[in-house]
Amino acid sequence: MPIIKKPNITYTGINQEIVLDDPNATLLDCSIMNQIPHLHECGGNGRCTTCRIRVIEGHNNLTPRTLIEKETTRIRKWDPSIRLACQCYAKDDVSIERLVWTSSEVNQLQLETVPDGVAEERAIAILFCDIRGFTKIVSENNTFDIAHILNRFYTVLGDPILINNGIIYQYVGDEIVGLFGVSGGMRDKNCKDAIRAALGMQYAIKRLNHTELVDFDINIKMGIGINFGKAYIGHLGHPKHKQFAVVGDPVNTASRIQSFNKEVKTSILISDSIYRGVPKDTLDIGQEFSNQMAGHEHQTKIYELKGFKEMDVQLQLQCSLDYLLRNEEEFASKFYDRVFEKAPEVRLLFKKNMTSQGRLLTHMLGGIVYSMSRPDHLKMGLKLLGESHSRYGVRKEHYPIVLSSLLETIEEELGEMYSGQLLSAWEQALTIITSEMKKYA
Ligand code: HEM
Ligand code: FES
């Protein structure tokens, strides 16, 4: 019998080498089996591209591209070294590097589908957010502090855009611009994503003012304007320096709506096209205005946005995620203590390192909150997770135990942030997740 050498898979970014025992395992399976965090939003179906890797060495030792991978490579214009880990198998040694490390990077990937050269007209929601009080920060702080504060702003204000399926288009002075629907999608979803992002940004700024900025004696305010309409999207510019650009009247109007906040002393204003873009009576609206925007002959209706009329589960989850997972290891250890106390026999199912297991669980919880803005991917991801759990020996009756342990840990960790509404949002989301996974037990 010839001795068949098992392939070595080297993960260059983390300097880890794995001997791949199972010839039927894809490179993504290899990561999952070895507790290496590897994003796979669509559950290995070749749709989301989050599992993408760069092959550093041993390109010819991988199986050829599948049809779906060929199509992805063509649309996104990848070079031959980029592969989808869920679509390829190693026949011999390979060195690879994971290319998408965090869920927050995922949405910027939409830019790969934007046409080169000729711009295309696409219906999008455009959000302009302006930070007020910035001049005071610049005049009263040293350069190092200003850079630190600015980076914090861009992070806390950018996250709500990214977590809601948007992309960060530009930073212009003290403004940040987000776009929703660049790669398509339904109008109501794109408008709702932009609205949720605006409310998330408002919450994030409030929190920043009450925590990190207290020491700087700064109270930042912001103004947001959102509009929906057809704009031209493409990679434009000098042939030697093209960059992603969005142009058109809806973009200028969004910027003007944002500025209008200053005149009428509001925080978030939305245009009539956003207001009409979401189902009737879903938004809590304050004042209504009618204004003639520069360059327009007609009056534009503008509405002050206060929030959603009913609790929005995604917004609640998004606003509490960071706080909840501020100490991931502690969260995971409290959670597993509860599970093992309720069902000691379950302990035997866990064969590998519990600290890495805890990190994977919290990584996955964060990923699930991000994937909620792409429900089709989420469903496919949960199918794979449910199937792998069935192989680990997890049974239907284990799911309620995990659900109640998670909710108790969340309630404890929420501490001062706790509210019945917040816990109920987590309960609704986790019930959906565990029910979906349970189908495969
Ligand atoms: C909210 C639901 C759950 C989530 C998000 C979750 C998440 C995860 C993740 C990300 C992994 C890493 C491996 C992989 O991706 O396949 C994992 C492994 C595992 N999970 Fe879960 N899980 C959930 C529910 C459960 C339940 C109900 C049980 C049963 C007690 C369970 C027991 C296990 C076991 C035994 C492993 C393998 C650990 C090992 O090989 O040492 N999980 N889980
Ligand atoms: S494309 Fe590989 S997991 Fe989605």
What does this structure look like?
The protein has about 450 residues and is of the alpha+beta class. The protein folds into three domains: about 10-100, Ubiquitin-like (UB roll) (Roll); about 105-310, 2-Layer Sandwich (Alpha-Beta Plaits); about 315-440, Orthogonal Bundle (Globin-like), CATH 1.10.490.10. The chain is built from 13 helices and 13 strands. The chain has helices at about 25-35, 65-75, 135-140, 145-165, 185-210, 250-265, 270-275, 315-325, 330-340, 355-370, 375-390, 400-415, 420-440; strands at about 10, 15-20, 50-55, 80-85, 95-100, 120-130, 165-170, 175-180, 220-240, 240-245, 270, 285-290, 300-310. The strands form two sheets. Strands 6, 7, 8, 9, 10, 11, 12 and 13 form an eight-stranded mixed β-sheet that branches. A five-stranded mixed β-sheet has the order 2-1-5-3-4, covered by helices on one side. Strand 12 (about 285-290) and strand 13 (about 300-310) form a beta hairpin. Helix 4 runs antiparallel to helix 5 (about 185-210) and helix 9 packs across helix 10. The two termini are about 40 Å apart. The mean pLDDT is about 90. The chain binds protoporphyrin IX containing FE and FE2/S2 (inorganic) cluster.
